[in-house]
Design brief:
alpha/beta, three-stranded antiparallel β-sheet, 9 helices, about 40% helix, globular
Amino acid sequence: MFRIDRNLTADDLDKALRADVAEGLTTHPKRLPPKWFYDEHGSSLFEDITRLPEYYPTRAERGILERRSDEIAQSADAVTLIELGSGSGVKTRLLLDALRRHGSLKRFVPVDVSGDFLADSARRVADDHPDLDVHAVVGDFEHHLGLLPVNDHDGRRLLAVLGSTIGNQAPAERAGFLRDVRGALDPGDTLLLGADLVKDPARLVAAYDDAQGVTAAFDRNVLSVINRRLGGDFDPTAFDHLAVWNAEHEWIEMRLRARSHQRVRVVDLDLEVDFAPGEEMRTEISAKFRREGLTEELDSAGFTLTHWWTDPAGDFSLNLSTAR
């Protein structure tokens, strides 16, 4: 069975983009949220990034799931799998298949902002598993957790946030998000969280500034998104891509740095913005975690961490926590 709830329209996304760009270009220092990287071209570039030798997180997380998915399924014992930022790719299938082998799974609830992509990927899951209740939800999981389907299947839910997505949030935002996730779950439900781990800064910087320049193209693509959707006149080639390790906060910052003075107009916002030579605009943070700190963050949000899995190199973690 297949259903889809559409809580987010193209108009909603346009309004959010306008608000984020207007705020980000007029604050100091300038910044843009990373979610606007992912138009069709940006999504294709990110898929290329995941195959780069320098970019280990996707391979490491997939490897953990290949080795541990049955253990995860047994520990979660869930009748419903909710995935935030669902891609229904290899990693999702590994988790779905393990829960199916365990024999408990009755419902899959993928959540994503891209309605057309989500509808296609969720329908493929439904076609492959005709006895599975697939209830897709189009929405921004940072704002629409309260609109998840009612838990009408008797049993526990497993909510998965893979890919170290939480690393893109600053600590205060992350704390609020984890509290919201806890509020959407019942006691005994579980949270499966992917989290990239602190390691040699040189490796981290290389993962976000590859030798082939794919990540640089991905970073500059956000300027093309603004040009196309909001009538901007950014020259993406006039900005250099930077990846910087912030040791104080233990996160990678991706930035775009103006090579020379730039005056940019965004027609749809009636906005004109100057960039000084060398001025940098932050486009992403990607926090890296330590087990002790993440355990404390989960505890503060109302979760008890019960399982911690890593790849053999200790680069990435998948952890399972129970809602108290």
